[in-house]
Design the sequence.
């Protein structure tokens, strides 16, 4: 965050409270996420500053402050793409849409925008449902045999199969997507030490560097041949890779490095977020049965009614969504 001079509804008349180095650093090294949550809880919505030596970021946690920073006064808070915090991210995605500002951001954003209109999203729904159904059907056998499955791995597989089909037109196969996804997990863990002490120059080796470099090599091994193939044989496809390989609005041909950055950024933003969300949804729902019930009701009302009004579960003859799961199916019966 580059500035907090206008931090919102509780204006800062004085310098925000600072968490001293001897408290901030050990807590962040021990448990980065837990430490940030604890600092925010202690601050009770006020902005605090973390003293990490030469690097002193602000921690903003009040919803109204977030509204101001991310929406109402967004121009004041640039991503600071050259800043210390983004430096490790730029090592993996270069100058991609996710970290760029200004003309570079506009070029990638302009190329990708037509893929994300509401109208196009609607046309993707059927293909998305088809891919999800295929992936979920692979649970029928373990369900019938009462065999447990690894929820995290399965949700990863479902999200990757769906995203690769719908957004990448299967240009990246599911096994290749699994390789990229595992490499991105490694990257995220391996860059934590550098995120915590971002002022340390890259010439100084740090824990995680070797794993990071190997993961980047894996990603390049998978992604670069696919981009080269797409550039050698251009199509008018509306998938992410074909779109990114075309000349931009200003007529400029994007170079391979720029395309690679945007492809990795789009892969990561589209899959890691959804996998994390779907993985955490179930433990959270199991602790809130009232919310789980509302969600099930809504699915039955919306998907059951429109998706398969004429379908019937082969085991219990329920019309539409088979919520009893007696046939082992988690999708609309039929
Ligand atoms: C639960 C799922 C998701 C969450 C929580 C999420 C969250 C976010 C957030 C917070 C940002 C802003 C980051 C920043 O500017 O610093 C962002 C940007 C972005 N997200 Fe997502 N996202 C999700 C799913 C997706 C999916 C499925 C896609 C692609 C299909 C996607 C594509 C993008 C892109 C391209 C950007 C950069 C936009 C720009 O700079 O113009 N995200 N996302």
Sequence:
């Amino acid at each position: 965050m580059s500035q907090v001079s206008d931090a919102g509804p509780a204006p800062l008349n004085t310098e925000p409270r600072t968490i001293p180095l001897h408290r901030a650093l050990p807590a962040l090294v021990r448990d980065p996420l837990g430490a940030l949550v604890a600092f925010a809880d202690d601050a009770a919505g006020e902005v605090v500053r973390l003293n990490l030596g030469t690097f002193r970021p602000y921690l903003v946690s009040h919803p109204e402050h977030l509204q101001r920073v991310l929406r109402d006064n967004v121009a004041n808070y640039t991503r600071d793409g050259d800043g210390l915090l983004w430096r490790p991210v730029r090592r993996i995605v270069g100058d991609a849409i996710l970290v760029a500002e200004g003309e570079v951001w506009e070029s990638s954003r302009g190329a990708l925008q037509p893929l994300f209109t509401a109208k196009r999203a609607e046309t993707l729904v059927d293909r998305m449902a088809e891919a999800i159904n295929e992936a979920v059907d692979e649970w029928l056998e373990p369900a019938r045999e009462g065999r447990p499955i690894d929820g995290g791995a399965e949700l990863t597989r479902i999200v990757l199969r769906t995203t690769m089909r719908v957004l990448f037109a299967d240009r990246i196969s599911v096994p290749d997507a699994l390789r990229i996804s595992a490499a991105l997990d490694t990257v995220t863990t391996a860059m934590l030490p550098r995120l915590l002490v971002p002022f340390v120059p890259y010439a100084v080796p740090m824990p995680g560097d070797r794993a990071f470099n190997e993961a980047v090599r894996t990603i390049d091994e998978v992604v670069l041949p696919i981009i080269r193939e797409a550039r050698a044989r251009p199509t008018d496809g509306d998938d992410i890779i074909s779109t990114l390989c075309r000349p931009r609005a200003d007529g400029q041909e994007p170079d391979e490095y720029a395309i690679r950055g945007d492809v990795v950024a789009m892969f990561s933003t589209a899959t890691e977020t959804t996998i994390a969300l779907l993985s955490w949804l179930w433990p959270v729902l199991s602790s809130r049965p009232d919310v789980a019930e509302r969600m099930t009701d809504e699915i039955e009302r919306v998907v059951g009614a429109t998706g398969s009004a004429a379908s019937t579960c082969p085991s219990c003859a329920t019309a539409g969504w088979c919520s009893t799961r007696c046939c082992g199916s988690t999708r609309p019966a039929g």
User: Anything to note?
Assistant: Residues 67 and 152 are 32 Å apart (CA to CA). The pocket of protoporphyrin IX containing FE is lined by residues 79, 97-98, 109, 167, 266, 269-270, 273-274, 277 (CB under 6 Å). The chain has two domains: 1-77, 108-287.
